Amino acid sequence: MKILVTGCRGQLGQELYRQIEARKQAREEFHLLASDVDTLDITDAIQVENMVKREKPDVIINTAAYTKVDACETDEQTAFRVNALGARNLAVAAYNIGAKILQVSTDYVFDGTGNTPLREYDPVNPQSVYGKSKALGEQLVMTTNPRHFILRTAWLYGEGSNFVRTILKLAAERDELKVINDQVGTPTSTVDLARCILDLIQTEHYGIYHGTCQGECTWYQFAKRILALKGIKIKVKPVSTEELNLPAKRPAYSVLENFMLDMVGLDRFRRWEEALAEYLRGE
């Protein structure tokens, strides 16, 4: 299977590269085409079409995204060009050669006003420019290529800049941390997500999926667990989202239930605490 991965230098892209190489050594039939913005500008439809026609991948995994949530509020055009138009360009190019596409999406497509885990059939209602651009990306992929997987995830961490490393860095610099305690979600390891993606693309179970680790917590609880696992003693003060006065609105409750993955027998995600402990052993 020939796989084109966009955004290969991001957290998920790097983990996909690692796992694909590991599977190749285990003699699974994987061939990786890794690209990032310097080798493939997904907002350029002609460039995308030419590369996909030339390389003829069996599947495209789109991890490329403009994820600066607050910056999206003032740079709407970039958000929609990358997250919506870019996704459409890849889906169209994949369709033209009969390839599959897996589009990575986000919990931000929901408004976060409920208090029970969200399933794939729940209506989307994004409240930020970032969420709206990702929701449109989902729609464009679904309407342009029937051989699609939409995989929504949340609170991702892996190799690169992320919440876990930010907390550890700040804990080394400060006497007290302030962390949001009124947003609830699920920290998700790129290890678990990449494994899910590589399993899913080998099927024809097309459609929308949620893919996060199991369980839920607030950012404050997440930070406390990070520090406890590293044996770091520091005062952590819970604060409200309102106190931080951030430009983009965040969903207050965006726990995703892996309902459809469970239905097709592919939900292999661990508890978030277990996945985090493994990650921190390498930090």
What is the structure about, briefly put?
With 283 residues, the chain is an alpha/beta fold.
The CATH superfamily is known as NAD(P)-binding Rossmann-like Domain
CATH architecture: 3-Layer(aba) Sandwich
- The end-to-end span amounts to 33 Å
Largest sheet features: 6 strands, parallel
Number of domains as seen in the coordinates: 1
Continuous helix count = 11
Shape: globular
Class from helix and strand fractions: alpha/beta
How many E strands? Answer: 12
Compressed to H and E, one letter per element, the order equals: EHEHEHHEHEEHEEEHEEHEHHH
CATH fold field value: Rossmann fold
Helix content percent band:
40-55%
Q: State mean pLDDT (0 to 100 scale).
A: 97
CATH class: Alpha Beta
Low-confidence stretches: none
Radius of gyration: 19 Å
**Biggest sheet: strand arrangement:** 2-1-3-4-5-10
Structural summary, described in words:
This protein is 42% helix and 17% strand. It is an alpha/beta fold and 283 residues long. The chain has a single domain, classed as Rossmann fold. Helix 4 packs parallel to helix 5.
Write the layout of secondary structure elements.
Elements (H helix, E strand, L loop, with lengths): L1 E5 L4 H15 L5 E4 L10 H11 L3 E4 L6 H4 L3 H21 L3 E7 L22 H16 L3 E6 L2 E2 L5 H11 L2 E5 L3 E2 L2 E2 H11 L6 E4 L6 E2 H11 L5 E5 L1 H4 L14 H5 L8 H10 L2
Parallel strand pairs: 1-2, 1-3, 3-4, 4-5, 5-10, 6-9, 7-12
Antiparallel strand pairs: 8-11
Helix pairs in contact: 1-7, 2-4, 4-5
